[in-house]
Amino acid sequence: MKLTTILSLSIVGYAVVFGVIMLILALNKRKTKKQLDRINPGEWMAQKRNGTRKEHPKLVEFYQKSYVRSSRIPFFGAQVRRIRQRLAVVNPYNEFTLRKETMRITYITLIITFFLILAFALLGKSLLMIFLGIIGCIALNGMLIDVFVHRIERQLLRDFRDFLEDNRHQYQSTKMIDESIYQASQIAVHDMKLHGDRIHRVLTARNPERALNAYYEVAPNRYLKVFTGIAHMIREYGDKTTSKGSLYLGATNKFVQDINFDILRQDRLSYQLNSLTIIALVPILLSFPIQSWAETYFPSMSDFYSGRIGYITQLTMYAVSLVAYLLVRKLAETEESKYIPKPSRKRWEKKIYEIKIVKFVVDRFVPSSHTKKYYLTTQLIKDSNSPLLIQWLTLKRLLLAISTVIITIAVSFGLHFNASHQILHAPTYNNGGLMIGKISQKDQESAIAQTEFDRRVIENLKGGDATHNERIRQEIEVMLSGTTSVADINQDVSRIAAKIEQLDTEYFKWYELIIALALGVLAYYAPIWMMLFQRKIRRVDMQNEVEQFRMLISILSQLDRIDVRTILEWMERFSTIFKPALQRCLSDYDSGASGAILRLKEDAPYPEFVRLVERLENSVERISIQEAFDDLEMEQDYYREQKKETMNRLIESKASWGRDIGFAPAMFLLGGYIIVPFLYTSFMQMKDLVTQLMHL
């Protein structure tokens, strides 16, 4: 407890220093607000819209210096670089702004993580709980980074929608695609203006094809990627008038409608699931005040919480909460940064796998390349959109299994040590009845004195036959010097003998090793189960992606020089879930179009997608693309209603799963941490009370 107190006080001290820093930043922000109040309202709104509104110079300088200094710190610098990479993909910031935004998100995540660790330190009563809380917060730190980066992605999608609306109006005036994009980018918000300028440079480049391919590698979402490609094609081949007007304006309208659907889907999913992520983690923090309340008003429950079963219950509840949080986060994932190629870097799995002895061991667990297990595992990696190779995945599974076994054995030793410590130091109450309400100071002091007496007797008995009642009686009589009755001595002998017997059983047992190995096996298969869950969630999104394919094909099919291969390339460029199957189809297309498309139907056997591919199959030799997809425009209203219904079903399905998973930790907290301990403690005390009544 002394070390725990020192740790808690240290963290409180850091919190005070951190609070002073935050106060200084708040005062700077207030000073900045006063300076902005002197600006003309129209000028201020223009600065806000264009992203040129200035922050306080000292705050900006603080961000820049922090970036330079933090990049030199080993672990902290790695986190800063990871945030920078994510932001560089989402928005084409200049170096100055990129560093500022990186440090802004870094400090926000550190603030949240720090105060969560502080809460664990103040509410927790043991080093084990504080340690587990710190591990959980470190894991949560990476998830917080995703949350803040995803907010930028969603805002960019809204800004792009407004950009398309402005582009439509400008095109109606100029009838020039590059000029309308340039004009629309000039009145867009700052971040979208950067993207608009980049699209304009692609369209007006000396080699547009090369510039377009370079932009495909860094485009932050598929809408920007495909819009740029469509604009390039229509600009090169010329706009045409269809039954519904301009092809370019019609394509722009379809993009706006599809983006609106996507924004609505993301907003509704966030509304349904974001609160569930908090609900999944709340039981971890609530466990501390609930335990404190139970030990205060039901003192006998302290034996349960401080015992082996109590610690196992706590660890299980933490595991349930973290797993539920991860699963709900997987359900809520709608952002596309997961599917964008990350900057090339060496993964830690690859570095470890390149060690000869590690490679030798891992290769023994990797299935043979010609087996069904190898094919299924490789396909699962692709379906779950994992960047790992099968060798790296196997390495990760082995490390997770070994770590689980080691941690389980360490926890077992810790539980035995804690049980022995509780036997020797926990207050010993003589009354066996139900204890409800606070214990008086006199009873508390008497219980502590009784424990100290028992501990001295046990320590004096070390080295001999400590379980022999006569020796225990002799030691008690020597310490008490005949001041206690025979009945009290007999009671002390029975109590101390029971404690010694319990101490003798506190050692690592063979079945605990079996449990550790079993948990290691479960941990070995846990990454596979997570990938299966992720693949199942992605299948829920397949219908939504097929609807987006229809929108894309309805635009491409009206171009005069379009063919099946080009449509497949655009589908691959626009897809996320069906991307691996489409990539394989394109790689096999030169060997035979019909065979490649047949293989595509086998690789992605989703019924709606197969029906779409069958139309492309007919277009290879039999009919034209315009004839194969002529009903897309005629049935546009039907597909729009179908898309709404699909979106509602998708959101309801994810929301239902999210509620079941998100409330599981709360149910476990209520049942396993409150009701079951109370019933267990009451039953044990009733058993002691009956035993005492039988001896009267």
UniProtKB/TrEMBL annotation:
The chain crosses the membrane at residues 6-28, 105-123, 129-149, 273-294, 309-328, 398-417, 513-533, 661-680. Keywords: Membrane, Transmembrane, Transmembrane helix. This is Type II secretion system protein GspF domain-containing protein. It comes from Paenibacillus gallinarum.
